[in-house]
């Protein structure tokens, strides 16, 4: 996909059992559609099909999926109580959309903690009013700035055996919590991450984010452990392969035992990002088991404008430096294992031929290509700022 190609992209789902197409996003002028293919709760993959005269080519879609297997719904796994933590800072309307989607889902035993990271003012009042509309909602104030503080506060307040996290700019699928909780039937699993897809691809910037790599980690269930050193030269320090913090769940006891997200990292701090990736590394490197499942889907609202996206990618570069600096600073014995992977890491980040960058088309803007690198170079100064702010 390229950002300035045929225009906006339609989005939808095709259910192979019912042979039914449902479009969730149908922008005017779309020439293609990205269709998630699933059998009931189970995700099988994604297809890109043409849109002709304003209609998705369903005949082509049905032919392409004709031989796909249907998946049995027999899933007698225990359903533990799940506490969903949504951290926010002045975005009550987005929280309402996100939490409403979770409440409308198929999971029967849950609570949702609305963690206000900017308490006081009209948006906080709206959050409190919304929390009063359903007994499964709870308002929690966390005045210390940063998503790490907010998530950790939510996990500390959680009553569930499992704590799931998503962001206020995400819209979870109706089967999201079922997809996450099913994996915890294995007592060895401490963390589960899921598939993150775009909520819309209306603008070039949103499509360029997908070309950059987006949040998606593919359509194959994967189990990660410390014993998987041969998986790649960068493993387990290519942390992006594990998933992302806008779609993750933890055993509550395990999350708390790890100490949660590092408050020096993440949105709302000078380091801007990296809190989720550092936590994944810490978990796996410490002997924990992490499972990625495509059956747990959330849709993410990508930045619509190029300037916004450039700022996001710059923040990712800052966070990339900061997460490794913080990780090594607190675990000096890990310095040499990371240094051994450094050369391959830079090639992965910078080479046009790397798996990470291969999806970028010729029209991928130079300002976006440079943004993450500039953030990486700014990382030391931003981390110092975060440290000074703490003391």
TrEMBL record:
GO MF term list: transferase activity
Residues covered by the Glycosyltransferase 2-like domain: 83-205
Domain of life from the UniProt record: Bacteria
Coiled coil spans: none
InterPro entries per record: Glyco_trans_2-like, Glycosyltransf_2, Nucleotide-diphossugar_trans
PANTHER family for the chain: GLYCOSYLTRANSFERASE, GLYCOSYLTRANSFERASE 2-LIKE DOMAIN-CONTAINING PROTEIN
Name assigned to this protein: Glycosyltransferase
């Amino acid at each position: 996909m390229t950002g300035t190609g045929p225009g906006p992209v339609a989005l939808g789902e095709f259910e192979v059992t019912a042979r039914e197409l449902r479009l969730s996003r149908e922008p005017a002028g779309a020439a293609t559609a990205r269709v998630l293919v699933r059998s009931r709760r189970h995700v099988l993959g994604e297809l890109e099909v043409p849109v002709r005269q304003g209609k998705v080519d369903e005949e082509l879609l049905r032919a392409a999926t004709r031989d796909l297997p249907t998946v049995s719904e027999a899933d007698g796994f225990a359903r533990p109580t799940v506490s969903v933590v949504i951290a926010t800072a002045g975005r009550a309307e987005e929280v309402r959309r996100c939490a409403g989607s979770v409440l409308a889902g198929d999971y029967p035993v849950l609570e949702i903690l609305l963690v206000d990271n900017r308490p006081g003012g009209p948006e906080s009042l709206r959050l409190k009013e919304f929390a009063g509309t359903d007994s499964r909602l709870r308002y929690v104030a966390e005045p210390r700035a940063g998503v790490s503080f907010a998530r950790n506060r939510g996990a500390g307040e959680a009553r569930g055996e499992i704590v799931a996290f998503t962001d206020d700019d995400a819209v979870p699928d109706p089967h999201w919590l079922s997809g996450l909780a099913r994996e915890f039937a294995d007592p060895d699993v401490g963390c589960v991450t899921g598939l993150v897809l775009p909520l819309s691809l209306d603008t070039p910037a949103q499509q360029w984010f997908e070309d950059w790599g987006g949040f998606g980690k593919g359509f194959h269930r994967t189990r990660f452990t410390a014993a998987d050193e041969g998986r790649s030269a960068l493993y387990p320090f290519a942390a992006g392969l594990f998933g992302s913090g806008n779609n993750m769940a933890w055993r509550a006891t395990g999350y708390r035992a790890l100490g949660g997200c590092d408050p020096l990292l993440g949105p709302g701090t000078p380091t801007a990002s990296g809190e989720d990736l550092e936590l994944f590394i810490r978990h796996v490197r410490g002997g924990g088991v992490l499972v990625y499942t495509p059956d747990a889907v959330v849709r993410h609202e990508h930045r619509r404008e190029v300037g916004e996206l450039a700022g996001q990618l710059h923040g990712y570069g800052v966070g990339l430096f900061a997460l490794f600096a913080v990780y090594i600073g607190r675990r000096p014995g890990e310095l040499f294992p990371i240094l051994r992977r450094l050369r391959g890491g830079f090639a992965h980040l910078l080479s046009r031929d790397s798996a990470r960058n291969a999806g970028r088309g010729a029209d991928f803007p130079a300002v976006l290509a440079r943004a993450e690198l500039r953030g990486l170079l700014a990382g030391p100064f931003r981390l110092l700022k975060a440290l000074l702010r703490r003391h």
